[in-house]
């Protein structure tokens, strides 16, 4: 905890993403026990078990870029699988769990995990409501805005977890727990009234490298001063084409285009080569950017994420940026279709504050210990 108590301003998560062609490994190359599990599952549930050569499998992998050994409908058959597969959502398809229902007072929306964000925003658009789908300090992380999970345990038992019921420990753990604790079959999310916002992506060429990294650093250090504004700054590398580009997805929960916190992302400080920042509904924005034009994931490609948190530090950003771009360009130029990117994601103090205010922060980042 020494690391966090030395926290000066805010955290900066470095998200590295790599999209690459999918390996040809599925049921045929998995270890023996998995093969047996697949056969047992298939014999019990032939309609919903998909091996690579079958139509259902191809449909699933067309719409989801995950590595998948097989697919079946949860939660009914979970307990027939060996325990080590219970929580591996990569082998379970949730694509038919497509619930979308606004509560009677419109304060929450129930969302099945088979939905894409574009479905959720499109569903809410006519009511002028939105949910937190990402990383906006004003309301914390998306996981700070889940009020209830419906989930299936390894034993096959279905339960609901909230901040205050008998399963509050599970609720707390699910905030950062990924799929290690249960399979979530429904998320109840807090809604916000926000019919139109300023949102869009500015793109810069290689010449803007230094002012771009400076602007991202400043946002990490001072971005909490404007709670309504957020950025997702991504360095995109296409090694086969020898191209490095800089992008900033900017968001301001306001109908006025006056976020001073973005001053260094616009002229004269930096001149974008393309810019879609405009007043629009989040639904319209998400429909246009899913999948992101900068990182398309067509059939046959998959994505992999790695996250490393560190205290905001301009020198560290320089080191990560240079090491990553230089080694990707030098070592991966022979890989066609590969996109590698680094997102210097500022997580301001407000993110952490909101997490603590909304039923606790399992990451145990203690901003109040900052000097
Ligand atoms: C989803 O439902 C459809 C229609 O009932 C069915 O054909 C398909 O196999 C189901 N998909 C999965 C993954 O269970
Ligand atoms: C890649 O582009 C840079 C300029 O952006 C250039 O200096 C370098 O020589 C190029 N490398 C290759 C292998 O083409
Ligand atoms: C913009 O950049 C200048 C110079 O680096 C810096 O002093 C200022 O704080 C930055 N503004 C914001 C809002 O980050
Ligand atoms: C899906 C995709 O982007 N495929 C491309 C991979 O790279 C080859 C060679 O550059 C292209 O021809 C494909 O279109």
Automatic annotation (TrEMBL):
Residues 1-19 form the signal peptide. Keywords: FAD, Flavoprotein, Oxidoreductase, Signal. GO terms for molecular function: flavin adenine dinucleotide binding; oxidoreductase activity. SUPFAM superfamilies: FAD-binding/transporter-associated domain-like. Belongs to the oxygen-dependent FAD-linked oxidoreductase family. This is FAD-binding PCMH-type domain-containing protein.
